[in-house]
Specification:
- The complex is a heterodimer of chains A (82) and B (160).
- With 82 residues, chain A is mostly helical.
- Chain A has a domain of 26 residues.
- Chain A has two helices and no strands.
- The mean pLDDT of chain A is 91.
- Chain B has six helices and no strands.
- Chain B is mainly alpha-helical and 160 residues long.
- Chain B has a single domain, classed as Butyryl-CoA Dehydrogenase, subunit A, domain 3.
- The chains are: A mainly alpha (82), B mainly alpha (160).
- Chains A and B meet through α1 and α2 of A and α1, α2, α4 and α6 of B.
- Chain A: Keywords: Membrane, Transmembrane, Transmembrane helix.
- Chain B: It comes from Streptomyces muensis.
- Chain B: GO terms for molecular function: DNA-binding transcription factor activity.
- Chain B: InterPro entries: RNA_pol_sigma70_r4, RNA_pol_sigma_r3/r4-like, WH-like_DNA-bd_sf.
- Chain B: Pfam families: Sigma70_r4.
Amino acid sequence: MNRAQREAAARQIMERTPTPVPPDLYPEVLRRGGRMLRRRKAAARLMWLLLFAATAAFVVWALMARPWVEPPSETTPPLTGW
Amino acid sequence: MGRRRVVQDARRDREFEAFVAGAAVRLLHAATLLTAEPPDRNPRARRLLTLSLAHTYACWDGLRGEDPYDRTRGHLAARFARSTWRRPHPHPDSPLARLSPQERLILVLRLYEGVAEEQAGALLGLPAERVRTICDRATAHLLQPRGTPSAVPVAKAVSP
């Protein structure tokens, strides 16, 4: 028996017994798949929401703290009275 | 926005139902061969297929041209390979009852599903030569007449 014949025989053994598909398989797949999909969408929505909240918080802080304005010098005393 | 989503959901359900109608018989048979259960009492194979199909359903809109059958089969094989430590003994009614889980997995992927050696190896994290060796060994085990010991003696050519 050569390789091709052996593989054909093995294939035949595997294909011999048909497996009936139970009728409740599809509804169960839809139920689980739908739940998975809803969870994924909820997680994605939460992530976008967090990202938006973080951006908004940063913008508000930046407008209040104005980190791009040079702070007044603390080493040289202000030159006054001449 | 709401209307578009409803249309998209309906289209997904329609496409997915057609896909399952065409693929479920073959995939359930493959899963039953993997779990080595009898064809009419296969709770583990059903669970395996249900979870894999549910996964395909959940990422249906993100497939972008990828074959849903390949995706489901890959998920099924990976899930089976991962569940190795809580696997009961094979049922004697299964045609692959005498093979080890790994031999069943490779035999089903290679010969029943016709996956190429390289692809099967990539799926399981094995080099293609190793897949070939295991597939040959599994075929030899399967075709052995019943009653013979499962250990295959290593044939060494001894020349006088």
